[in-house]
Each structure stands twice: as structure tokens, then as C-alpha cells.
From TrEMBL, chain A:
Domain Yip1: 76-229
Higher taxonomy: Eukaryota, Metazoa, Chordata, Craniata, Vertebrata
InterPro entries: Yip1/4-like (IPR045231), Yip1_dom (IPR006977)
Biological source species: Orycteropus afer afer
UniProt protein name: Protein YIPF
Keyword terms, alphabetized: Membrane, Transmembrane, Transmembrane helix
UniProtKB/TrEMBL annotation, chain B:
Organism: Orycteropus afer afer
Highest classification ranks of the organism: Eukaryota, Metazoa, Chordata, Craniata, Vertebrata
Molecular function GO labels: small GTPase binding
Subcellular localization: Golgi apparatus membrane; Golgi apparatus, cis-Golgi network membrane
PANTHER family hit by this protein: PROTEIN YIPF, PROTEIN YIPF2
Name of protein: Protein YIPF
Keywords linked to the UniProt accession: Membrane, Transmembrane, Transmembrane helix
InterPro entries: Yip1_dom (IPR006977), Yip5/YIPF1/YIPF2 (IPR039765)
Transmembrane spans: 117-140, 160-180, 201-219, 225-247, 254-277
Family per record: Belongs to the YIP1 family.
Membrane protein topology class: Multi-pass membrane protein
Gene Ontology cellular component list: Golgi membrane
Domain of life: Eukaryota
Length: 236, 312
């Protein structure tokens, strides 16, 4: 603006016309109307997107998450080499499975002995800290899977063992006997193998090839301990 | 001598000798190493080999200090350096702990001065769970023989087992390392082991107890004690032979005291595990158990509702 003032002062003397020389001639006493919309073309889409998840019904929100969890359950039950579990990880499924398993495994409150099955907190701690330890182990060995992806896979692969727990509780309603035990043993072994196969299908590829066994062995130990807890469950 | 694994083992030694000979730039350390040539100690016929090994170790140590900047302990890469092992290396180390040999020091030949934390951690975890599980299995088997014994899952034993094993395998090496550091001045030849190397020695020496604990399922008492004594002897021999090169130059009383303490602690661990997790179940033996920590009342309770896993 100062430049314009100077140039208008010198306007009469210099031969080349300075900048903004004719500016003072313009009268700006009347308002120049400014019209038109200053909207970004994408903005209307964004506004729709925001309102679509904010204003949707609660049922839609819950069903979307439930469908994601259900889809992952299907991937665990029929393990194929796919990336769905890894790409869109979530921890709802593992939480639900862990709470279900811990609730079913805990000994009744009437049991005041020190010996007995695990308490709710013990199962919870074993599942979550076990999964965290295995994930840390896998990352320290040089695996290229992220922390939460690995937690997600390990948690979802508890699904077969939760099914085994349900079956065992049903079988225990019948009369006890060696047949009872054999059925439960068979079911638990089958589901244990299923869990191991499902989790290694997802996890083994992320490890360097000469360390695969080192990364898979803790997974084996983890599911073995959970299977042991399921097999030794005795209702009071 | 014709076994294939003997041949491959010798290949390793040649390779490490070649490796030791090429980096020859550590002049400051070589002054300290010259008196080695005329030390003669009765450790078999590989004294000269031992001297070469020491050269290799200190040269390597100097090189590693010079070349690699150790990342800070707050970075993830620092801890990753402790897990830098392959499956074959871990298996090799386990084999080395199962077959201790006087001339092949565990730290030199197996660890190659690159200790790892994978082995000690997971061997301790496996041992803790196997102890608790097989202890529970003996209760199952005893109940099949004698239905009056009340079965219970005894889950608290998992907690006890894991705390005991982890404390033993990590605190005792800490104490040992501290002791060796304190006595460091007496040794001219060889530096003390690092803390991780002592943890590795202890961790891998516990591996032999895993099959032993599984074999303790066999309910024959003298066989159980036999297995226990064999496993303890093998494990303690591994420990002593691994520690011998470092303790060798110390004064006699100190060396003897240290070795006997190590063996004593190891035997206490084995004995404690045997008595606590595999309590002899016939009731007349219960009174004579020295363990003060909780005798499981399950075996003495009148069974309320024995919904047992197996009934005979």
C-alpha cells in the first residue's frame, strides 16, 4: 500500500508508468457486490458422510460391528490364507471370547478351597498377558506383524476352544464316567489342533523363515494351557 | 569320530579359528594376552586351544565394541538384539546343555558369546507349566487307583511354579554375576561373564528338568528319585563346567564355596519341585513332608461331590 502511495505521488514525473498508478482514480465509495458460493465440491460429500454415521440408528452401528466380528469368526472356523483378520483387526471378538471362557471356567463361589480351577481373573490374565507375551516375542524375533494385529489373531483363534468349553459343559451334564472323559478329551484335542492350525495360518507368514518354529512354539504352549484348563474343569 | 555331527562340529571350530585370526588389530589387548602362552593348567589337552579361544573372545569383544553402537536401552532394537537367534541355534544350545563336555565350554562353543533371552524365558515358562500340569496329572492317576482321593484342578500351583522358576532362573544368576564381578580383580586371564551369559547358562541348564518332570508321572517312587538324581547331576554338571573357566583362577576356598553353593541351590530347587508338586499321595506319608507351604487340603478333605474327571 505504501508503494502505491509513492507511485501515485510520483505519477506525473517518471516516464514508465508505475504500478497501481490508476488506482486512485477508482472510486470505491460504492460497495461491489460479491456473489457466488465459495464451497469446495467435495464438502457436500463429507457432510453427508459425517451425518451418515452420526445420525444412523444404534442398531446399524451395532450390527456393523457384529457383522465384522462374525465375518472374522468365519475366517477362524475355515482358515484360509486371507488378510481379513490382519487388515481390519478389532479386539471386540477376543474380548467377548475371553470373557465367555473365563465366566465358564471359573469355579463357583461356594467353593472356598484354595485348590480348584482358575478364578475369572486368572483366566483373563493368562489369556491377555499370554497373548501380549507371544506378540512381543514375535516382534522381538523380527516378525513384521503389528502388535494389535497379532493380538487380534490370537484372540480370535480362541474361538474353537470356547466352543470346546461349551461342549464340555454340556457333556458334563450327563453322568460321569470314562466315556464322558474320553468324549471331552477328544473334543478338546480336536479344537486345540484347530486353534493351532488357524493361528499359524495367519501368523506364520509374518516371521523370517528360519525362526518360524521359535515364534510358533509359544502359541502352542498358550493354547495347550488353555486346553488343559478346559479339560480339567470340574463343576462343583 | 565318523559321525556326521562330529564333522560339522569341527567345521565350526575351524571357522571360528579363521575368524579369530583375521581381525588382528587389537594391539592394546594383546599385551594383556601375552602371558597366556606359558600358563599350563590341567584341563585336558586343549590348553593351547583355550588360549586361542581367549584371543578370539577378546578380539571379537573389541571389534564389537568398536563397530556396533549399542542402541539405548529405551529403544526396541536394544531388546531385539537379545532375540537374534535362529531355530537351529536354539536347538544347538539346548543340545549343548544336555551334553556337557569339559573341553567345550557352553559359553564359548554354544553361545559364542552371543547370549539370547529366548531360551531362558521360554524354557522357564515351559517348565513352570509342565510342573503344574504333571503334578495335577499325578493326582488324576492316583485317583484312578484310589477313589477316595478328591481331585481338584489345583490351579494355584501354576502361580507358585512360575514364580519359583522365574525367581530362581533370574535372581540366582544376578547374584552369581555380582559375585563374579566382585572377584574380577583376581583373574588375570579372562573377564567375567556378562549377566546375560549367566542367565543363559542357568536357563538352558533347566531344560533337562522338562523331560524329567514328565517322566515323574510314572508312579514308582525309586524310579522317580533315580530320574531326579540323574537330571540334577546332568544339570549341575552343566552349570559347573560352564562356570569352571571363570572360577578356575580364583582362590581355592572361594571357588569351592561358589561351586558348592551353586550345586546346593540347584539341588534345593529340584528337591522342592519334586516334593511340592509330586507329593506322595498315600496318606501315611503326608505327615512326613518337610514342605511347610500349603499342603493341598484336597487330599484330606472328605469329598463333597466328587464329580471326578475319571472314575475307576
Amino acid at each position: 500500500m505504501a508503494e502505491a502511495m509513492e507511485s501515485s505521488g510520483d505519477g506525473g514525473t517518471a516516464a514508465p508508468r508505475p504500478l497501481f498508478a490508476g488506482l486512485s482514480d477508482i472510486s470505491i465509495s460504492q460497495d461491489i457486490p460479491i456473489e457466488g458460493e465459495i464451497t469446495i465440491p467435495m464438502r457436500s460429500h463429507i457432510r453427508e458422510f459425517d451425518s451418515s454415521t452420526l445420525n444412523e440408528s444404534v442398531q446399524n452401528t451395532i450390527m456393523r460391528d457384529l457383522k465384522a466380528v462374525g465375518k472374522k469368526f468365519m475366517h477362524v472356523l475355515y482358515p484360509r490364507k486371507s488378510n481379513t483378520l490382519l487388515r481390519d483387526w478389532d479386539l471386540w471378538g477376543p474380548l467377548f471370547l475371553c470373557v465367555t471362557l473365563a465366566l465358564m471356567l471359573q469355579r463357583g463361589s461356594a467353593d472356598s478351597e484354595k485348590d480348584g480351577g482358575p478364578q475369572f481373573a486368572e483366566v483373563f490374565v493368562i489369556v491377555w498377558f499370554g497373548a501380549v507375551t507371544i506378540t512381543l516375542n514375535s516382534k522381538l524375533l523380527g516378525g513384521n506383524i503389528s502388535f494389535f494385529q497379532s493380538l487380534c489373531v490370537l484372540g480370535y483363534c480362541i474361538l474353537p476352544l470356547t466352543v470346546a468349553m461349551l461342549i464340555c459343559r454340556l457333556v458334563l451334564l450327563a453322568e460321569p464316567g470314562p466315556v464322558n472323559f474320553m468324549v471331552r478329551l477328544f473334543v478338546v484335542i480336536l479344537m486345540f489342533a484347530w486353534s493351532i492350525i488357524a493361528s499359524t495360518a495367519f501368523l506364520a507368514d509374518s516371521q523370517p523363515p528360519n525362526r518360524k518354529a521359535l515364534a510358533v512354539y509359544p502359541v502352542f504352549l498358550f493354547y495347550f494351557v488353555i486346553s488343559w484348563m478346559i479339560l480339567t474343569f470340574t463343576p462343583q | 569320530m565318523a559321525a556326521a555331527d562330529e564333522l560339522t562340529f569341527q567345521e565350526f571350530e575351524e571357522a571360528t579359528d579363521l575368524l579369530a585370526k583375521t581381525p588382528d588389530a587389537a594391539t592394546t589387548r594383546s599385551d594383556q594376552l601375552t602371558p597366556q602362552g606359558h600358563v599350563a593348567v590341567a584341563m585336558g589337552s586343549d590348553e593351547s586351544y583355550g588360549a586361542e579361544e581367549e584371543t578370539e573372545e577378546s578380539d571379537k569383544a573389541m571389534l564389537l565394541q568398536g563397530e556396533k553402537q549399542q542402541p539405548g536401552f529405551w529403544t526396541f532394537a536394544y531388546y531385539q538384539s537379545f532375540f537374534d537367534v535362529d531355530t537351529s541355534q536354539v536347538l544347538d544350545r539346548i543340545k549343548g546343555s544336555l551334553l556337557p563336555w569339559p573341553s567345550h565350554s557352553f559359553v564359548r562353543h554354544r553361545l559364542r558369546n552371543r547370549p539370547d533371552l529366548y531360551g531362558p524365558f521360554w524354557i522357564c515358562a515351559t517348565l513352570a507349566f509342565v510342573l503344574a500340569i504333571t503334578g495335577n496329572l499325578t493326582l488324576v492317576l492316583a485317583q484312578r487307583r484310589d477313589p477316595s482321593i478328591h481331585y481338584s484342578p489345583q490351579f494355584h500351583k501354576v502361580t507358585v511354579a512360575s514364580i519359583t522358576i522365574y525367581c530362581y532362573a533370574w535372581l540366582v544368576p544376578l547374584a552369581l554375576w555380582g559375585f563374579l564381578q566382585w572377584r574380577k580383580g583376581i583373574r588375570e586371564r579372562m573377564g567375567p561373564y556378562t549377566f546375560l551369559e549367566t542367565v543363559c547358562i542357568y536357563g538352558y541348564s533347566l531344560f533337562v528338568f522338562i523331560p524329567t518332570v514328565v517322566l515323574w508321572l510314572i508312579p514308582v517312587p525309586w524310579l522317580q528319585w533315580l530320574f531326579g538324581v540323574l537330571a540334577l547331576a546332568l544339570s549341575a554338571a552343566g552349570l559347573v563346567l560352564a562356570l569352571w573357566p571363570v572360577i578356575r583362577e580364583d582362590t581355592r576356598p572361594a571357588a569351592a564355596m561358589l561351586l558348592s553353593t551353586v550345586v546346593l541351590l540347584h539341588s534345593l530347587l529340584a528337591l522342592g519341585c519334586k516334593l511340592y508338586f509330586f507329593q506322595p499321595l498315600p496318606l501315611e506319608h503326608m505327615a512326613s513332608l518337610p514342605q511347610a507351604t500349603s499342603l493341598p487340603p484336597a487330599t484330606l478333605l472328605p469329598s463333597t461331590l466328587p464329580r471326578a474327571i475319571t472314575t475307576s
